[in-house]
Amino acid sequence: MMSRPTDIHLPLLDDRPREECGIVGISNVENASELSFLGLYALQHRGQEAAGICAGNGTRTKLYKELGLVSDVFDAERIASLPGNTSLGHVRYSTAGGGQRVNAQPIVVRYAEGDLAIVHNGNLTNARGMKRQLVEEGAIFQSSSDSEIIVHLIARSRHRTVEAQLRDALSFLEGAYSLILTVGDTMYAVRDPRGFRPLVLGELDGGHVVASETCALDIMGARYVRDIAPGELVRLEGGRATSLPGMHPETPAPCIFELVYFARPDSNLWGMSVDRARRSFGRQLAREHPVEGDCVIAVPDSANSAALGYSEESGIPYELGLLRNHYVGRTFIRPSQADRDFGARIKYNPVREVLAGQRVVVVDDSIVRGTTSTSLVKFIRGAGAAEVHFRVASPPVRFPCYYGIDMPSKEELMGARMSVDEIAADLGVDSLGYLSLDGLVEAVSEGGPFCSACFSGEYSAPLVDLEEKIENASQFDLAFQAPAGR
Description:
Structural class: alpha+beta
Radius of gyration: 23 Å
CATH topology of the largest domain: Glutamine Phosphoribosylpyrophosphate, subunit 1, domain 1
Shape: globular
Strand order of the largest sheet: 4-3-5-2-11-10-12
CATH architecture of the largest domain: 4-Layer Sandwich
Strand content: 15-25%
Number of domains: 2
Mean pLDDT: 89
Number of helices: 18
CATH class of the largest domain: Alpha Beta
Helix content: 25-40%
Largest sheet: 7 strands, antiparallel
Number of strands: 23
Oligomer: single chain
């Protein structure tokens, strides 16, 4: 394992961490763009910043992408303008590169063997150095996304076949990547050697579907076949799926935060039901941090399953004490600076009849910055709760993620700045309990080993760009140090 690096500041965006994107590929199925559209609908939770679909038959690929939700970007007319039996889809939230339209995916370029299209979920940890080298060699980049680096590496490979060029390009990459590419009618799917991000294979109507989660297969009526293995390269063509020599697999490190928060509860990841995994977290949490209470409530919706598990293990009744507004979008209302709870107030509402006079056990999946949690505790007390006991179905988040999740800087992470007792005082709760890292891993031990770097600080893939940035900053500081006095 690598040592814990000094942290680099990331932009303040939201209290919750955000996934970079969701991807889907349709091979050898009629009206493929319609299926990509359905798949992206199911994967909307993985990115709400931009959406894109490309489709084609043979050598030409048509593309449409725009900022916004899937339902805002696409309608029936737009989907009809993307004919073909091969299609890729992408929903994006940017962690590498900005949120401009130019960074939306799929990326489609002209290529010797026909149009090449690519969608990427993850984050390359050596992107800065690779991009600098490519630019020095004459490459011209159209976006600031690290995904475009892969396209340039393929185009510059001196190997003759597409598959050899792809393997050559992948050999230069570090970090997290689940990729789907098309060259003409041929599709390729690949996961990085550690398998940080999920990618599954399904069958439908004599063709195949590749997607970030099984919930995308379900909405299309596709049959789940298996996960794409870490380091595996799969070719999909003419209704046939062929596993090809790929990258040498490393020790598996699927992201455990996918099970904690990101993936939909109706998905299966790495052979496990996400809902059952979260219930297991909740049951273990109840064993580690029991408390006398009158009701268990969840911070909806991502903590619902964990709260049910806590209730099942503790015997404390589960109630709907917080309701979430699912229709919150951008608002023209500008709250005053004094209204620190505005964002939480328009998203959550307490049910007074459930909470008044009760000893309430609140279960959340994680605490990141803590601003939302602090507001929720105020709302619950304001609804008349006699006691508020906060339980978190994961350990304290103490370290940023560099493998495809947008996390705040270490200085902004509540778990890095404060002890558990200090966090409890800051939240204003009667008690606070986090699930231990050992308990988290043990609850889903059949799916491990996992990457838990955001909890432990143990990063399994090299953080090349980060280490270079730290080294450069250190050299800059040394160069400008004042000479010692005589």
